[in-house]
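Q: Give me a protein?
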Amino acid sequence: MNDIFLKWQKKAKESPIRIVLADLGDPRADEAAQRLSEEELAQIIPPSIDSNNPYTQLAIDNGLDPSDPLVASALLVKNGDADAAVAGATRPTADVLKAGLQILGVSPQVEIVSSCFLMVLPSGNQFAYGDCAVIPDPTSEQLASIAISTALTFEALTGEDPRIAMLSFSTHGSANHPRVTKVKNATDLVRKHDPELIVDGELQFDTAVVPEIAQNKAPNSPVAGNANVFIFPDLDSANIAYKITERLGGARAIGPLLQGLNGIFHDLSRGCSTQDIVDISIVSALQTVAYKR
């Protein structure tokens, strides 16, 4: 196991959280629950609520069934009876997002719900890629929100200061195109919203990661050559990039991690493994601790 995952497990054991596994009853979720409990990584909460939950009527008013495990999981987080929830091993992402959005809503810090992957290379280096799973063709405003959310997720999981590269096929005006303008405008919006974030764009990927190329193409950039958070201009490029990094680069891809909800509520692929459920649960623990600081 990579050292970073051992470090994560140690942190999770130091502050075990209450987590709802919405897919209990599925063999993968049941095995994950057993491992998380036996290794003292989390306290498992079943995905059911009683009629005294004050937000039950909220679910009903939104046309949701409080007895649905997805909805019940979101209600438990909303009411503070659980710190986080993990769902989606047996349900499509659309169902998970619907429950999360209608019960938890969007965090006041951002404009939209998005996602990212934490990519852990064989070397142990860690990067965040956003948005790889939710917004197909984001506007400048949406890209800015994705960048802010992904930076928060990266910092919570790694403890490192995020250095955000807003990616494009152009670097600092080397090309003139509406898609380039979109990324430039998004970069300006990130700076306006949070002046303390270290961000630059538009940048080509090689400029963002290779110091020698950065020195040539963007010598005055605070990010070029040393980026660790990569914001892609659309879902096509982000999804393709994370899979290339995973399959050809040997990286471990943790996610997709939903971000921007007003509570920790993560989605799983229906093809996920027991280990995937354990990993996302540990990620939830780290986020819970980080966001409570």
